[in-house]
């Protein structure tokens, strides 16, 4: 039997992809910044926040999404997420409609695209970021209580960012296709902005994090050529205008589109996405013969990516954990697994529609094998893994409960009315061993290491922090898998309540505010010749399993009569997380955070780090 014209494949192992899809969309509601809607906000423990974003710069930047467990609005991963959500709606429209999720899906896209429209007030201006990662990570507070910097950063002709502008153009072009059947006027607005942003990205070239240096520590860009090809490919799909197709063909070699063979698809590296998208355009058979040869070269690279995932690439295969999860790198590895799974689901449909096979160095593969790989990644996420845990929060009976997420880990403003201060959040809520008071349904955490190991610890941000970019591909992936393997579910497929209210507020545990002299060490280096005093205190301790962790506070005080600038500290034996300093390009060397330019006589600042075992060694290297 077939459903929606899509052939059913072998029986599912029992995972409810429809329920997983429903939850994955809720995550985006938990990440909303700005004025929340009164009727279409199902996550009830969140409230309005960031209502003054952009005000200091005279621009309305209210809205958009917080990136992860923090409150910075980073443009590059947000735009990539919007592109992936839109691609899911475009290619799996029938599946999403049959699951009655089109409304929520379009809402998820529009919350980003409305923000991008605001952020693009002029043809050659794009506001790229709101908030500062350094100051934001120094605090642990709810979005509704934010006291951190909300400085906005823009790209323009003198401060280019072809990668970010190109990705935003791709997002808006893809969204214009997604919205066209439902709101043609809004679709036209999106397309107009997409065209302008692509022209801006192409004409004024440069890396966005060269123009916005404080983004380097968080979302460093490896290049912009892939984003330019990506944007042009999406604009061609949205418009059928030949100049965009000509762009990806003429620049195929120069920009690496037919040169790069990759095993990663992510917010930073779009080559595999470009290659599969252009292969889809090629196989649809609507392009002229002048472009066919180059598009076939793109297809060869698309095949390389797919064959590497299937372990049929002549030894040049993607790395899988012993449990079968795609593994690319340590921090938030799940984002690479979901993106690759989505791409193979798309490519499977593309090949199946043409009754074609994938030819690999180690043999041919049927389209179904690509979809089975996508399913294997989804199943791993939902519980078919050595830990037997769902890495999608709220799905199943066993999932992470100490998610590295500020809003989830602190009681809702509706239950706990007192403001939670910047550092107070660390003392009262971050260090708690209890589960987060608010379940952040649909958050996909960073996931296990290369050996399938996982520690559900709030301080283990590499593994327990969710991100937008990991969640974006899930819309298309879960909708495809549900219809292909399970069919249309009954109306009772959801196993969570229809609204997601805050849980009763646990009382914060008291933490010490004064410390004995034995807990504090003072350092005035170089026999009092240095005009800087370091005071090192242990301000809290707690146990996780059999290991004791310490919260260290280091006060830096100017005891001279002159201003101090350009301070550099060397920190050795640091094994945990640190807040309040900026990591320099030199190993173990730290600078003042972005918001501190000078330390006046008598002034002091602080930084905090958390680790088990002995304290780190802090040494003053230089200053002016």
Automatic annotation (TrEMBL):
<feature type="region of interest" description="Disordered">
    <location>
        <begin position="489"/>
        <end position="529"/>
    </location>
</feature>
<keyword id="KW-0624">Polysaccharide degradation</keyword>
<keyword id="KW-0119">Carbohydrate metabolism</keyword>
<feature type="domain" description="Carbohydrate binding">
    <location>
        <begin position="532"/>
        <end position="612"/>
    </location>
</feature>
<dbReference type="Pfam" id="PF09478">
    <property type="entry name" value="CBM49"/>
</dbReference>
<dbReference type="Pfam" id="PF00759">
    <property type="entry name" value="Glyco_hydro_9"/>
</dbReference>
<keyword id="KW-0326">Glycosidase</keyword>
<dbReference type="GO" id="GO:0030246">
    <property type="term" value="F:carbohydrate binding"/>
</dbReference>
<feature type="compositionally biased region" description="Low complexity">
    <location>
        <begin position="512"/>
        <end position="529"/>
    </location>
</feature>
<dbReference type="GO" id="GO:0005576">
    <property type="term" value="C:extracellular region"/>
</dbReference>
<keyword id="KW-0732">Signal</keyword>
<keyword id="KW-0378">Hydrolase</keyword>
<keyword id="KW-0964">Secreted</keyword>
<keyword id="KW-0136">Cellulose degradation</keyword>
<dbReference type="InterPro" id="IPR008928">
    <property type="entry name" value="6-hairpin_glycosidase_sf"/>
</dbReference>
<dbReference type="GO" id="GO:0008810">
    <property type="term" value="F:cellulase activity"/>
</dbReference>
<comment type="similarity">
    <text>Belongs to the glycosyl hydrolase 9 (cellulase E) family.</text>
</comment>
<dbReference type="InterPro" id="IPR012341">
    <property type="entry name" value="6hp_glycosidase-like_sf"/>
</dbReference>
<dbReference type="GO" id="GO:0030245">
    <property type="term" value="P:cellulose catabolic process"/>
</dbReference>
<keyword id="KW-0325">Glycoprotein</keyword>
<feature type="active site">
    <location>
        <position position="404"/>
    </location>
</feature>
<protein>
    <recommendedName>
        <fullName>Endoglucanase</fullName>
        <ecNumber>3.2.1.4</ecNumber>
    </recommendedName>
</protein>
<dbReference type="InterPro" id="IPR019028">
    <property type="entry name" value="CBM_49"/>
</dbReference>
<dbReference type="InterPro" id="IPR001701">
    <property type="entry name" value="Glyco_hydro_9"/>
</dbReference>
<dbReference type="InterPro" id="IPR018221">
    <property type="entry name" value="Glyco_hydro_9_His_AS"/>
</dbReference>
